[in-house]
Prior knowledge:
Elements: H1 7-10, E1 16-18, H2 20-26, E2 29-34, H3 44-58, E3 66-70, H4 74-86, E4 89-95, H5 100-108, E5 112-116, H6 127-141, E6 146-148, H7 156-172, E7 179-182, H8 188-200, E8 205-211, H9 216-222, E9 252-256, H10 258-272, H11 278-294, E10 299-304, H12 312-315, H13 318-323, H14 330-335
Parallel strand pairs: 2-10, 3-4, 3-6, 4-5, 7-8, 7-10, 8-9
Antiparallel strand pairs: 1-2
Helix pairs in contact: 2-11, 3-4, 3-7, 7-8, 10-11
Amino acid sequence: xxxxPDFAAAVGQTPLLRLRFASEATGCEILARxxxxxxxxxxxxRTALGLLLDAEQRGxxxxxxxIVEGTAGNTGIGLALLGASRGYRTIIVMPATQSxxxxxxxxxxxxxxxxxxxxxxxxxGHYAHQARALAIAMNEADPGxxxxxxxxxxxxxxxxxxxxxxPQIWEETxxxxxxxxxxxxxxxxLAGVGRALKARKGSVTIALADPAGSALASYVNTGExxxxxxxxxxxxxxxxxxxxxxxxxxxxxxxIPDDESVPLALRLLHEEGWCVGGSSGVNVAGxxxxxxxxxxxxxxxxxxCDAGTRYQAKLxxxxxxxxxxxxxxxxxxxxxxx
Length: 338
Ligand code: PMP
């Protein structure tokens, strides 16, 4: 009998998929970790577990204590579900612009959800600052009662990916991986996997697929944080260098427009059965660009971060897509006639 004793033990047990269309179009093997198959539905279950185990080990989170985090949604879902399985209360501070599906998913986890206006990071009202301030206030009132997970600048996030996701990719490709590419929110996935793979094979190429509206591709290419355009994707892109992103071993970076990434996300569903969110579309676009940069015959790995159902009302809504000047495939227009 093979069993998993609890939620934590089910995190990260995700298959490595071969993406048919992307592989055939490039002559490379394009593989993707199905992170939407995590128990909380996203790659951020891994981050949540890494941060939580580190806090437990350091004694930063006491039994029955409260987890406090600022999140675009997925990390909060992972933390709240882990919290439920380990006896912690969870408070999540989240920008009100995030998808209704993610906000509802968080509410049903039992987490207390505090929606705040979406403002730039330099504004003290930014959700990450509000979460930190809340944890500080709780600890002033009752010392040791709250733990601020701090996914952006707590490098236990990156370290967990370096210790688990990276080695898993290495082992499951039998060391054949030539390149890894993904978008960055905190940067934990790219930095952690990048470090793990570079340590095992110095020639591996690590690439950033950055959504329009983010300043990270410009930072990698020019050293300047400059952003232009915008994107319907959620959970990725950044206007600043987080501690997790800082020093990540990135060789190549591209800014990916939505009219490249969204059609790929829709195509993955319609032609291969993988229902994934917008950041996965950005990642697959990045994998195709990396395949073209390396040439045929290479093995490239990326991540399918979460499920498309988390963005149903936007990504699979012809009226929404048209309002953003994005193409609507015929099958989707037929499924939802105007
Ligand atoms: N995709 C989605 C849907 C996410 O929620 C996130 C994290 N916010 C990412 C990608 C980026 O992952 P990371 O934080 O490890 O850079």
